[in-house]
Each structure stands twice: as structure tokens, then as C-alpha cells.
Specification:
By secondary structure, the chain is of the alpha/beta class. It folds into four domains: about 5-225, 2-Layer Sandwich (Beta-Lactamase); about 245-325, no CATH class; about 360-525, 3-Layer(aba) Sandwich (Rossmann fold); about 540-665, Helicase, Ruva Protein, domain 3. The protein has a five-stranded antiparallel β-sheet, sandwiched between helices. A five-stranded parallel β-sheet has the order 11-14-17-10-18. It has a four-stranded antiparallel β-sheet with strand order 7-6-9-8, with helices on both faces.
Length: about 675
């Protein structure tokens, strides 16, 4: 036995009923000698302990073992932590709350994976020191197969909360310990993913220890459920980003990284022979891994569910699942949606330009765009995110003085590093800088010659680059970096921003002379909430467009659903409305949409526009597309009064990620 720990616990008077422990020890010795299960039970040893002793014997565990085996290689343990990152994250809050309570209590708290390997250990320092001697530490292996009967291994084996007290342990070296452990189950398929354990000298044993540890296991399971819901939404978002529904397929199944169904839009899917598919959420269709190619994923599917398309889904650069497109019955759209629209020259993507709406404020903006195109002067388009600024830029391009196929070039000023702005806009000569093209490279101004150069997020243009842009606009010529040759350009500049550039000028972040030069003609794009009479026509258009792409019929909205759409404030504007119908077509079962099918934010607060963070609704997944992400950030800023540390914590993102998002959406870092 661990004599040092024995002396410590004896001095604390924490051993409990010595006579009971002696009786159990004698029964254990008899069991090892005679291997008689019934005789051992008659000696007063609990059934579950006797059964575990019997398993330990049959597994060949050495009853004289003094300590558990341990993961020796650091890289193997790091890999184990990475594999169990979701579990560690889910347990972190509970462990942080418990840790201060354990100091001086003579107990430690432990988290293990599904195989009983310790992932985390916290608690009283003297008890942790003693635990090190039996490898009850990170990397220690406490499955029954490794160290016989013990709280962790037996709870995992039995699948229920378990106490193993002192002499009830199978191995000699751990009989000075009392352990209460409970398995942690995955909230989707209920498989065991780990265990939590409270361990210490036998004197820590209390009848309520088991209830405590089971409560913690349930709390971790609840956190895992929240993680799974966030991941489900993120996987759906990743799928919508790659947008495979443009093909001929009309059924989609999204799997997580181990091959379980996280979402499906195939309630009536069956193969050619009519065999139905089991597509329950949580059902594991295959053993999926990040090493599998698209072809291997397709081959791993059940024979009657061969997909017509496979898309690997990545979250934060890591493989996180796959979207499968299944062939199914196809229904041609019979609905006829004819919104009022303004046709123009075909866009670069081959689709006709559609500006849908009849609201006077919208029509005034359209008229101004057409006049700007004829004038050929620089244009500044201002409007909220998702309001359709680029569509107006394309209208200007389409109306350009009758030219045949003039170029349309876009530059996102918020997505280019400051060092590369000059090269991107004005081009460079051979050898102008390290990494420059051997033959030189034309900039965006030259590529847009004779057409439109659209500078998106022009408010992000670095201050030191703004004089060069002003000079190009005035001289109508560019000089490539590292070259003295003057190159004439005939470009109509269209700047777009969701900021108030006038305020940026007053704040010293934008040059006044450049502001006056590019703002010769300013077009204010109205937000959707200011053109509510166009919501029905836009909704019908997006509904029909998605239905046509999926070769089905448009959804039918109830009167109550329409009322909520008209009452909603649409922080993401037209883009949010478009993505709403992408979501509804994917997630609504059946073809009828009522109020409960709409995201939570449509049904909270006055007019569906509460600024407070929405409560978690496990039954309705939010639409976390670009405008929903921006909306969530803005809400968090309001709720946390601009404190970015608390905002990043509430959103579950790092501060660097939050900074990138603030910049990408043009959100000020302070929020009133």
C-alpha cells in the first residue's frame, strides 16, 4: 500500500468503518484464493463489486498491482486531448466552479475519456501529490482492463454512477482510495464519451457523493448538447456557403465528423426500389474520418443510399463533417412568381440583373444609379450590410453609355493587407518588390479600363493610400509600382460602404478631399425595413428561385408567418431574406411554413426585434449566415455594453477572431 498516504489519512481520521473494511479485505483474499462468486457475495460484498472482481480476474489483471499504467508519450496524450476537445470544453465550466471548493477538502476531481484515460485532474494539492504515486493523473489509464475494479473503470463498464470504496478496489495498491464516478453520455446518440470522478482517501465518502458526481455528469452532457447545436448550425452554414444545391440533386444529409446525421432535408427519401432510409438525427450512417476522400465517403455509404454528390465541410480549417446530396424524386415548380423588376444587362454570372421592388425610396435609388451611369462620374453607394449595394453597382455597369461588355472589376478593401494595396490597385513592374511577378502585373484600374471599378468597403482604404487614389481619379492615369510609365485609364469608380464616410472624415480616418471626389454622386440604398411593401415580392422571388433550383415547388406561408415577416426589422436586409428561404427550404418538413418554422428572432420582442441575446432554443436552429453572425455580434455588444472580453466569451470566439469579424462587418469597436 501507499504508506505515506495511509499515514496522512489516518491522522485526519478519515477511514470510516474499519471493521467493514477488514471484512471486505478478507472476502477479497478468499475470492482470489477460491474464486467463488456466491461465497464472496455471502460475505456481504455488493453484487456489482463481486461481478467486477470476477471480470478483473478473467481479464488477467494483477491483483498485486500498485499503480495504473500511464500514457508515456507526450505527443500521444496531446493527440488524445485533441480527440476529446469537445468533452474538455464542455467540462471546463463545471471544473472551474468546483476547483475552489476542493482545496483543503482532501479530494480531487477527474475527467476521463470513454476508455478511462484521465484527461484532466484538479483538487486538493496533497491529495494530488498522493494520486501521482498511483498514476491517478493526466494520462493514467483507469479502465477495468488496466487496473481492475475502480470507480472510473467500473462506472464506464456498467454505464451508471458507481462508488468503489477503499477495500472494494481489486488491486492492492489503490485500496487506500474512495472513488465515486459517473459516465458522461453524448446527448445525440447516448453513447458514453467519458466519465467524471471524485476521488480521495476513504474518509471523503459520503452518501451524497454519488448524487453530486451524477449531477456534474449531467451538466457536462447539457453543455455538450449546446455544443452539438452550435456545430449543427455551423455545419449547415458551411453547407450553404458552398451551395451545392445549384445542381440537379434535391435531398441533403449533413453528417458530423464521425458520420452521424446532424441534419437532413429528405423526410421521404427512398431508393429506386422504394426502400426507406433511416435518417434519424443521431443515426450513424458510416464511420467517417478526416482521412477519407469524397470518393471514399461515397463508397462508405449504405448501398441503397449512394449519394450523387459529396462535400467535405470544414470549420475553422478543421474537417468537421460532410454534406451528402441524395438523388430523389423531382417535382417541377408549378408556381408562377412574377415580381416587379427592372431588367438590365446580364451580370457576370450569367443571371439577368433583377432589382425587385416598387417602394418610392427604392425607385429613387434606382433612378439615381441610372443617371450616375450616364454621367460617368465617380459614385459612392452607402447602405447597410445586405441591402444590395453591389446590385446597384452592377446596374450602373449595365447602363454604361451603351458599351458592349465593359469590364466589371471588384476589390474588397477590407480583405487586402495594407502592404498589398498599391500593387492590387495600381499594379507593379518586374522586380518591384520581393515576390513580385517576373513579368509585372496590371492592377485593378487597368483591368477595369473602359468599365466599372467597384471598391467595396472603401472606408477600409488605408489613409496613406488615399492620396494615390485621389491622384488617379484626377489624372485618369496610373503608374505601376516600380515603373515610371504613365498608363491612361478610363474607369468609372464606384465606392461602396456601410459606414457614414462623413463621420469618418470628421474622425480623421478618411481624407476630406477624397470624400468629396468620390462622393460626386451619392446613392443611399434603403434598408429593407424602410421598403416593407417590397417584402412580399422579394420573398416570392427567393422562394421560387430556391424551389426551382431544388426542382420542387415553392413553400406556402401562413398568414401568421407573413405577418411576422412584415413586422420583423431585417437587420441583415435583403440578404437575410434570401438566406431565410434557403434555410426554410432545407429545414422545414412539408411545404407549409407557419410561425413556429421561423427562426427565434422573428418571434421575440416587439415586432420580432429584441436586442437582448435570444435564449437557446433547442428545437429551432438560428440562421447563422453572414447577416445573422453580424446581428449576433451587434446584440452581444449591446448586451455587454461594448466590453470585448465579455463579448468574445459570450459568443464563444477568441478576441482575434472577434476583431476580424468587427472589421469584416464594419462594426465600431465601441458600442453605445
Amino acid at each position: 500500500m501507499n504508506s505515506e498516504f495511509f499515514d496522512f489519512t489516518s491522522r485526519q481520521g478519515m477511514f470510516g468503518d474499519w471493521q467493514t473494511q477488514r471484512a471486505t479485505t478478507r472476502a477479497w483474499e478468499d475470492f482470489l484464493s477460491f474464486r467463488d462468486v456466491e461465497r464472496t457475495r455471502m460475505a456481504g460484498v455488493r453484487r456489482e463489486i463481486v461481478e467486477s472482481w470476477s471480470r478483473s480476474l478473467s481479464l488477467g489483471v494483477d491483483a498485486c498491482s500498485e499503480l495504473a499504467p500511464v500514457e508515456e508519450a507526450d505527443e500521444d496524450f496531446v493527440s488524445l486531448q485533441r480527440q476529446n476537445s469537445d468533452l474538455l470544453a464542455a467540462a471546463s465550466r463545471a471544473f472551474a466552479q468546483i476547483e475552489p471548493l476542493l482545496e483543503g477538502a482532501g479530494a480531487i476531481f477527474i475527467l476521463t475519456d470513454a476508455n478511462g484515460t484521465v484527461l484532466e485532474q484538479i483538487g486538493d494539492q496533497r491529495t494530488r501529490d498522493a494520486a501521482r504515486k498511483i498514476h491517478l493523473v493526466r494520462g493514467g489509464k483507469w479502465a477495468e482492463t488496466s487496473i481492475g475494479t475502480n470507480g472510473i473503470g467500473t462506472a464506464l463498464r456498467e454505464g451508471k454512477p458507481t462508488v468503489v470504496h477503499a477495500s472494494e478496489h481489486f488491486c492492492q495498491g489503490v485500496k487506500d482510495w474512495s472513488c465515486a464516478a459517473a459516465p458522461i453520455r453524448d446527448p445525440i446518440d447516448q453513447r458514453i464519451v467519458g466519465a467524471v470522478d471524485l476521488s480521495g482517501p476513504p474518509g471523503i465518502f459520503r452518501p451524497h457523493n454519488l448524487a453530486l458526481i451524477d449531477s456534474v455528469a449531467r451538466e457536462i452532457k447539457a453543455e455538450l448538447a449546446k455544443q452539438h447545436e452550435r456545430q449543427r448550425v455551423q455545419l449547415l452554414e458551411a453547407f450553404l456557403d458552398i451551395n451545392p444545391m445549384k445542381g440537379t440533386s434535391d435531398r441533403v444529409v449533413i453528417l458530423d465528423k464521425i458520420g452521424r446525421v446532424m441534419f437532413h432535408r429528405a423526410p421521404d427519401y427512398s431508393d429506386k426500389s422504394g426502400q426507406p432510409a433511416d435518417l434519424r438525427v443521431g443515426q450513424q450512417l458510416m464511420m467517417l474520418s478526416d482521412q477519407m476522400s469524397d470518393l471514399e465517403i461515397a463508397k462508405a455509404m449504405p448501398p441503397h443510399m449512394q449519394p450523387s454528390g459529396v462535400n467535405r465541410l470544414m470549420l475553422e480549417g478543421k474537417f468537421s463533417g460532410a454534406a451528402l446530396i441524395l438523388p430523389g424524386r423531382r417535382i417541377r415548380s408549378e408556381a408562377s412568381v412574377k415580381p416587379m423588376c427592372i431588367p438590365g444587362r446580364d451580370g457576370a454570372d450569367g443571371d439577368s440583373l433583377l432589382l425587385i421592388g416598387t417602394a418610392p425610396v427604392f425607385m429613387a435609388a434606382v433612378d439615381m444609379a441610372r443617371r450616375a451611369a450616364k454621367a460617368g462620374a465617380p459614385v459612392l453607394i452607402q447602405g447597410e450590410t445586405g441591402a444590395g449595394k453591389e446590385l446597384f453597382a452592377r446596374l450602373i455597369h449595365a447602363e454604361m453609355r451603351g458599351k458592349i461588355a465593359p469590364p466589371f472589376v471588384t476589390v474588397n478593401c477590407g480583405a487586402i493587407s495594407q502592404d498589398l494595396f498599391g500593387s492590387e490597385l495600381f499594379g507593379h513592374a518586374s522586380g518591384a518588390f520581393t515576390g513580385a511577378s517576373r513579368d509585372g502585373k496590371p492592377g485593378k484600374f487597368e483591368l477595369a479600363d473602359g468599365g466599372v471599378l467597384c471598391l467595396d468597403e472603401i472606408g477600409e482604404l488605408p489613409l496613406d493610400m488615399q492620396p494615390y487614389l485621389l491622384r488617379v481619379l484626377e489624372q485618369r492615369a496610373v503608374y505601376r509600382l516600380g515603373c515610371s510609365k504613365r498608363r491612361k485609364v478610363d474607369v468609372q469608380l464606384v465606392g461602396m460602404t456601410n459606414r457614414d464616410l462623413g463621420q469618418e472624415v470628421d474622425a480623421g480616418r478618411f481624407r476630406r478631399d477624397l470624400f468629396y471626389r468620390i462622393g460626386t454622386i451619392t446613392i443611399e440604398i434603403p434598408p429593407l425595413r424602410k421598403r416593407s411593401q417590397d417584402i412580399r415580392a422579394l420573398a416570392d422571388h427567393f422562394n421560387a428561385a430556391v424551389a426551382d433550383r431544388q426542382e420542387t415547388v415553392p413553400l406556402e406561408l401562413t398568414d401568421e408567418a407573413w405577418k411576422l415577416l412584415h413586422a420583423y426589422r431585417w437587420p441583415g436586409n435583403v440578404r437575410e431574406l434570401r438566406n431565410l428561404f434557403e434555410r426554410l427550404h432545407l429545414m422545414t418538413h412539408g411545404m407549409r411554413v407557419d410561425a413556429t418554422d421561423l427562426p427565434t428572432e422573428f418571434r421575440t420582442g416587439p415586432a420580432g426585434c429584441s436586442l437582448a441575446p435570444d435564449p437557446v432554443d433547442a428545437t429551432v436552429a438560428p440562421v447563422n449566415l453572414e447577416e445573422m453572425e453580424e446581428q449576433a455580434i451587434r446584440r452581444a455588444l449591446v448586451a455587454e455594453k461594448g466590453n470585448l472580453t465579455r463579448v468574445s466569451a459570450s459568443l464563444g470566439v477568441s478576441r482575434p477572431t472577434l476583431y476580424r469579424k468587427l472589421k469584416a462587418y464594419g462594426i465600431r469597436r465601441t458600442y453605445e
